Structures are given as C-alpha cells and as structure tokens.
From TrEMBL, chains A, B, C, D:
The keyword Thylakoid does not apply. It comes from Georgenia yuyongxinii. Belongs to the ROK (NagC/XylR) family. InterPro entries: ATPase_NBD, ROK, ROK_cs, ROK_glcA. PROSITE patterns: ROK (PS01125). It comes from the Bacteria. It holds the Pfam family ROK. The keyword Ribonucleoprotein does not apply. One of its GO terms (biological process) is glycolytic process. GO terms for cellular component: cytoplasm. It is an enzyme of class 2 (transferase). Its EC number is 2.7.1.2. One of its GO terms (molecular function) is ATP binding. This is Glucokinase.
C-alpha cells in the first residue's frame, strides 16, 4: 500500500507519496530554516496533511540526519538541526492517526537503493552517501542493520588515520574527513595554497580561493589535472574504507550515492582500484562490485516511506 | 539434539559431543602435523566415528582457520594448513551419513559465546579472538553474519594505520598487526632493542631476547612496568578497533577471547578506556560493554557443533 | 658595541638597544596594525631614530615572521604581514647610515638563547618556539644555520603524520599542527565536542566552547585532568619531533620557548619522556637535554641586534 | 698529500690510496667475515701496510657502519659488526705512526660526493645512501655535520609514520623502513602475497617468492608495471623525507647514492615529484635539486681518506 516519505534536510523538506514499487505518485517541497525547528515540524505536518487529501496511505516515514533512537521515535542527536533527545514522532503524530517512524536519512536512502535501485538484486549491501558528510547504510540478509542502539551504519566515523584530520565529532581521522564533499573542498583549498601554480583552473571557476565541490567536479570533467587528482585522492580513501567494510560485513555490492558521486567514474574508478589494492585475501574470496546509486536525491524520501510500511 | 563439534587447530584437533545447552558430554584430542593434511582428515574421521559409538548425534560441525566457502563446504584459503579451494566437507563425509558443515574457527568460537557464554543475553555482538592472530565473529539480530562470500567478520584485516606494520596478508597496517599475540611478541622484542634498560624482567623471564606472549603476561601480572605498558598499547589498539566496529555494526557487547585475553583486565581496562575515547557521539548514543569471553578454548568446538544443528 | 634590535610581531613592535652581553639598555614598544605595512615601516624607522638619539649603536637587526632572503635584505613571504618579495631593508634604510639586516624571528630568538640564554654553554643547539605556530632555530658549531636559501630551521613544516591535520601551508600533518598554540586550542575545542563530560573546567574558564591556549594552561596548572592530558599530548608530539631533530642535527640541547612553554614542566616533562621513547640507539649515543628558554619575549629583539653586529 | 681510505663493509673491505683530487692511485679488496672482528682488524692493518710500501701517505681514514664517537676514535654501536664501545682506532694504530680517524660510512661517502662528486659545486648538501639501509650525510657551510655526539646525519631513523613498520632499531616508522633496499624487498614480497596476479614477472626473475632488490630493478627496467610501482612508492617516501630535510637543513642539493639508486630515474623521478608535492612554501623559496651520486661504491673509501687529512 502507498506510504508517505518525508526527507528533512538542512534547508529543505521533500515529502511524497510512494507506491509499493518505489514510484513517487506526488511530491511536495518546502524551503526551511534549520534554526526554526518548530516551523519545520509544522511544514512536515502540513505536507502530510495535504498529501493525504488526495492519496490513501498506510504510514509515514520521516528521514532525518543524526542519531535516531532504536525505537525509531526520537532524534537523539541531530546533525543539521539542533535536536537533542527530541521526541519527533510524538510531535508529528498530533492530529494524525497514521503510524509514523523516524529513520536516519542515510539509512533511508540506502534502503531505497536496496529495494528499488542499484542494490535491488543484492542480499547484502553497503551504501556510502558521499554528500557534505559521509553517511552509510548496511543491509545484511535483506534487513537494514540498525544495531543495538540504532547507530549501525555510521561508517563516516570509522577512523582511517590515527592523528588524522579533525572531524566535527571531535575525533581525529574519521573516514568522513577523507571521503566527503567537505574533504574535497578542504583538499582543493589547501591545494591552492600548496600548489598555486597548478590551481589556476579551479581558482578561475570559483572566482577566487573559496572553491566548492561542484567547481572541482566541473574542472575534473573538463580534464583539469589538479581536479582529477583531487578525485583520485578522494577515490583512494573511499576504496580503502570499502575494503574495511568488506572485511567486516562482506556485502556483494557497495553503492555510492550523494552529491559528490555525480562525478561518476572520476570518483568510482579510483575507488574501485583502491578497493582492489586494499582487499585482503584477494583472489581467494568473492569480491563486491562498486556501483553508482540510481535514485538520486529522492532516495531518502522513497526509503523512509518504504521502511514505514514494513 | 546432541551434535559433534571439531576444532582443527594448527597442531591439534579437539572433537566433542555437545548438548543443546552447550555442555560437552565427551571429548577427544589429537596432536596433528599441519604439514600432513591427509592425516588430519583421517583423525577427524576417526574422532567422529569413535564419538558416535557412544552418543547419538544429529550433525557434525567442523571449525577451521581461514576463509570458508559461503555454502560451508570448502576451505577456500586455510591459514594454518595449506588448503586452497579444498572440498573439506566431501572429504570428511565419506563413510558417514551425518550432515557436516565447515565453519570459520573464529565464527564458531563467537557463536559459542553468543549462545552459551558472555554474549548469551545479547542480540547484537562482536567477538574478537586475540590469539596468535586476531579473529572475529559478528552476530546481528541473533544471526551469525557470514556475508555475501562467507568472509564477514574478518576484522583482523581492517586497516588501522596507513603505511603501518606489514601483515602476513601482504597489506600494511591491518588491525591484527596491532592487537594480537603476534603484535605483542613483536612489540616486546622491539622494546628490548629500543629500551634495553627497561626490558630486564622480560629478558630474564624469556632467558634471552626471544620473548613470547606468555612471558609478557606473566611479567605484567607481576607488575613489570614495561610489560604493563605493552598491554596498554595492545589495549589501546584493541579499543580503537572496537570503536570502529561500534560505528559500523553497533553491537551491545564486545567479547574478547583468545590466549592473549587471559591477561584479563591488564588488557581489557586499557581497551575499554581507548574504546570510550575513540567512540563518536559518545553521550548521545547507547554504548557497548567490553567483556571477557567465558568458554575458554572449547569455544570453537562448542560453536561448530551448535552451528551444525541449526 | 651596542646594536638595535627590532621585533616586528603581528600586532606590536618591540625595539631596544642591546649591549654586547645581551642586556637591554632601553626599549620601546608600539601597537601596530598588520593590515597597514606602511605604518609598520614608519614605526620601525621612528623607533630606531629615537633610540639612536640617546645611544650610540653599530647596526640594526630586524626580526620578522616568514621566509627571509639568503642575503638578509628582503621578506620573501611574510606570515603575519602580507609581504611578498618585499625589500624591507631598503625601505628601512632610507634616512639612516647604519647597516641593517633582516632576520627570521624564530632564528633571532634562537640565537639570543644560544648567546645569552639556555644554550649559552652549547655548541650545537635547536630551539623550538611554541607560540601560535611552531618556529625553529638551529645552531651548529656555533653558527646559526641559514641554509642554501635562507629557509633552514623551518622545523614546524616537517611532516609528522601522513594524512594528518591540514596546515596553513596547504600540506597535511606538519609538526606545527601537533605542537603549537594553535594545536593546543584546536585539540581543546575538539575535546569539548568529543568528551563533553570531561571538559567542564575548560568551558567554565573560557566562558563557553571557544577555549584559548591560556585557559588550558591555567586549568592544567590547577590540576584539571583533561587540560593536563592536552599538554601531555602536545608534549608527546613535541618530543617525537625533537627525536627527529636529534637524528638529523644531533644537538646537545633543545630549548623550548614561546608562549605555550610558559606551562613549564606540564609541557616539558611529557616532551622529555616522549623524546626518550622515540630516540633511536638510545643508550649507545649521547643524548640532548630539553630545557626551557630563559629570555622570554625579548629574545627576538636581543637576537636580531646580536646578529646584526656579527 | 695522499691518504689511505678504508671502507669496512659487512662482507668485504676496500682500501685505497686517495690523492688530493679524489683519484684512487691503488686499491685492495678483501672478503671478510662479519662474525670475526679480529680478522677484520688484521685485514685492515695488512692493507694499510701493503699500500704504504709503495705510496707515501699522510693519514688513514676508516669508514664503518654505525655510531662513531665524537672524537672519531671508537665505534659506539656497529650495525654490521657487533662492535660496542669498541676502540677501533687504538686497535688499528698498533704498529703504525700514521694518524687514524674513524668515520661513519655514510658520512664518508657523502663527504666524497661533496668534494669530488655530484655535490662538488654545493656549499650545503644532504646525501641519502639508499643501500640495504638508509644512511645519510649532511654538509653545511662546507663542513661535514657531526653533531654534538657524533650522531648527526642518521636520517634513516627520522620517523615517517607513527605506528609504521618496525625498524631494526626497535622503533616504528623510521624513514629507513620506507626508503631502502630492505623496504623495497619487503614491499616486493608483500606484493606477491597481496597481488599474486600482478607479481608474475618478479616471481619468475627471482625463481620464487624470495625477491631481492636487483630483481625489482631489473623488472622495472624491463617495464614490469608492479616493479615500476614499487619504485614509485619508494620514490614517494624518499621525496617526502627530502622535503623534511629541506625544512630543517635547507641544502641546495640532495644526492642519492647506494645500490638501490642504480635504478636511476625509475627512483629519482618519483622522488623529485614527491619532494615538490611535499615542500612547504614552494614557489616562495629556493629549491634544492635531487641528483644521482657519481662516485659509486668507492665513495666511502675516498671520503674516509679525504676526511683523514683535513
């Protein structure tokens, strides 16, 4: 039966009616202010209400960034919005009789890829969402892995480099600091200082030293050697971490999504090569494939809806 | 119903009849020569045959070190014995009508702890077997995680240090190189060279510079500062890796077994402290406990038997 | 004969008449605006002019942060002030007949310690100035080491951690990112996020999460465990780098100065311990001592004056 | 005036009469047994005696591997031969009236390159001798840098990777473990395990998995991709360390010698590229060149002779 999925991002909300086969029947989007959580909740309630007027739905799934309680009713620690131990389900449930579940946004996106996207033929899958940060979702035996405390799949906080780059979480060397949009931007800006003679194309595109991720993608697609190298570095670290996930979880596919993955093979080819060069016992064991996500930025909404009805 | 468990080690075989509740009704042990695989298979067949004479059993589970095929019938790559794509199940099945399954030895030990030992009240568990190497087992939602290719739980080959110590697998910086008996021995011998003035107690115990793991344990238990420090270093790396597993799998318990774990709190206390200092989002998320294994060196046999009947 | 020393800092200028024995006969200080280089030059010229009215001097030495030309006449790349290939000597020489030399500020401070401070009995010395950044000076055989291009002693940009923290120079893992005031501040702020339960004293002192170096010093001196640990970490990296310098330059003393060194043994004891644990061939080779600088923040001025007359 | 130079290696001694311009007038070579130090001393005495019969010489310089006393009279810690605090000068002086000095072998080789080889036009030079290990020599202002305790230039024991490969000195991550013949061999053998499908050429050349340095050189010269990559990795680490030396000592030339350097540009090109990518403030400072050594394996003998007469 149809369900509503809502994806609460930092600056916008996407809500849609999602059919059993993952197609989106109707959709609504609102701009939001991450500094006004009350307004965000109102927008979600309004979106659900409007969508229900025209569609019969069984449940509502809400995706949000951060740590979610194991019972799927609260945001323990929001990353975009300053929710702390926030009972989001109860806040949204007022005035509706539908069952509501709260999901981590990367888990929701991963679930959508597993059900309807690149992972639809897999039984064991990991997904890395390479956006501003690095989110993850893990599916084992056809089930989303939530863990004992709801925190499974926080792959971005696996440590890659002891003494490495500071992460926003207060620790050093988290994978997210080497394989994310933030990492790409940071490395590009550092390269402008370290190798000024090579950074001309990037600086021109950005109109100065404040380079952003899409500038690097655009320059790399045009063949700029430094930009290509920045994606090779990112891919190196991405592949290294996927090899770690293979050692632990051993999935048959690693799906790469998020905005940075729009660079496609500029990112995926180095990631595959690095994965192969890091994988232990290669040649004596089966080996996952690294694939691009298929569903784009609707994945969170679609996955949240699907998780709500299961 | 009772089942037979067999644990094929590098230099000995342990076989026993294991009841539903994990108790061992009868047991046989044989010394073996890892260089003579045919003799090992004969010993296993003989042990099973002898045990069956006095006990009614439903199945046989065989634990071996290395990569096991997903169908649990072959050793793809043995670590102690030079088996490569070896159809061990068929070789052992000749002349018996019992169902036989082959299991990775660390998986078997972990399963035993999950069912009958420190993890018996858990639903999600990781076990780290700190022996000569570092083996792992992961249980999620009450099921042993085998992965798509049978290689899940190979936690010892997660990379901890880019450019770090060479591992026998040909890669650099594997966790096993920092948290295993081999790591302990290596660090102790390096310390003799680097800090000769502090290594007196260890050299005395070992009768020279060829220090072995039990010497370090003994010295640490007697309060030797260098030996205590070597366990602190080991615990530091053990805890760091457990924090990675918490980020990925999020279990409620990490069980530490293997010969090196006999040092008890000398190893576990630093591991716990390091785990806490490495865990992302600490204070906003539930947190696993680090516990000693309970079953000792019968765990592999018990777990293999139990996995055979399920 | 007496000489004038001028130390051009980011926000102030100190100028003084320095006697042959390093004593300061007269001194002047001015606040400056790093964004107004012309005004800075005028202040220097005025200070020199005023000091000469009452003192007979032979030369002027000017200390500035950044890369200095090998001929000691230009600032190739200023760190506090945006000088690029700036002919500072010629700009200051207008209207005076005195010889003028430009020196790197850390070199000047190191030279003062070598001549009149903690290094006065040494022949081979390194000095690490642990201020906002990490500056260095190296003396071999009684001579300040300037190198082929005037860039010797830039010890803060030795790489300590491949893939480590980003440095302002655009590279990763520079020593300065692990052993400087900036490192201390950064680590303290990260600790507030990672270990909120331990950071109470620091947050109270700072009136919020924007902790500064002196807050850490003050808290550590009062015994706050987290602050003490932050200095231990800093000392660990400081000592590790000193062991590298011992392997390369092999001095008999390492002098530690700069604002962060005001923490004294809270920093120096861990640095000494780390140095000892990192030094190769310890016990078979002579070993430097790690000592606190003696001259305080007049060192740059005194050293610049002394270098001008030699 | 002519002088005799003696180079005591692990398995042979080379002795020669060296003219003021570095030419070798006569030479003698003996095989030796590193396990028989007395026989080695006898061979040295005999060689000196024979050479003197036909040549008038002013002094004898003896190069040996290990830490040498600052007074140049003893081997404090031999690396090839088990000398500990061994008064080598007095042992050799019996029966001769010539002045004798003992020198570190890498220092001697570096000095020869500085006087007569690739560094002859330089004033500040570093030399890296990439043999089995990684030896170093540093010349500043035309003088060999010996340091306060005779241990300057031990560049191979600078730490490159915290937690990195174990070094024979008992520490982790020494530069020698990443840029030496031993590193090359070790990496090649690890590659056979990690990437069996790529190691065919190397295994064929070596007739099995026990690959040695010259096999890698030969394979790389024939274009084998894995062998070329192994030299690229070695060059990467070599260049990274040279950038550290540039930050500290700032020479105008880095000379690369030793047996591994016979690979020429296969090693030097990646080293140059890595040096450039690691150098701080590149573009705002003068920059050394990385050059091949010119004198081959006579360098130690020639340099020892030359140091003896100065």
């Amino acid at each position: 039966m149809d369900a509503i999925g809502v994806d609460i991002g930092g600056t916008k909300i996407a809500a849609g009616v999602v059919a059993d086969d993952g197609t989106v029947r109707a959709e609504r989007r609102y701009d939001t202010d991450p500094g006004d959580p009350a307004a965000i909740e109102e927008s979600v309630i309004r979106a659900v209400s409007e969508l229900r007027e025209e569609h019969e739905v069984a449940a509502v799934g809400v995706a949000a960034a951060g740590f979610i309680s194991p019972r799927r009713d609260a945001v323990l620690f929001g990353s975009n919005i300053a929710w702390r131990d926030h009972p989001l389900r109860d806040r949204l449930a007022a005035g509706t009789d539908l069952p509501i579940v709260i999901e981590n946004d990367a888990n929701a996106a991963g679930w959508a890829e597993f059900r309807f996207g690149s992972g639809r033929d897999a039984e064991h899958m990991v997904m890395a969402t390479v956006g501003t940060g690095l989110g993850g979702a893990i599916v084992v035996g056809g089930c989303l892995l939530r863990g004992a405390f709801g925190a499974a799949g926080e792959i971005g906080h696996m440590q890659m480099v002891p003494g490495g780059h500071y992460c926003g979480c207060g620790h050093e060397g988290c994978w997210e600091m080497y394989a994310s949009g933030r990492a790409l931007t940071r490395a590009a800006r550092a390269a402008v200082v370290a190798y000024p003679d090579r950074a001309g194309a990037l600086v021109d595109l950005a109109g100065g030293p404040k380079i952003k991720g899409p500038h690097v993608t655009q320059a790399a697609q045009a063949g700029d050697p430094l930009a290509v190298e920045l994606f090779e570095d990112l891919g190196f670290w991405l592949g290294a971490g996927i090899a770690d996930l293979a050692a632990i979880v051993d999935p048959e596919i690693a799906v790469i999504g998020g905005g940075v993955a729009e660079a496609g093979d500029l990112l995926l080819e180095p990631a595959r090569e690095s994965f192969r060069s890091h994988l232990s016992a290669r040649g004596y064991r089966g080996e996952l494939t690294v694939q691009l996500a298929e569903l784009g930025n609707e994945a969170g909404m679609v996955g949240a809806a699907d998780l709500a009805r299961t």
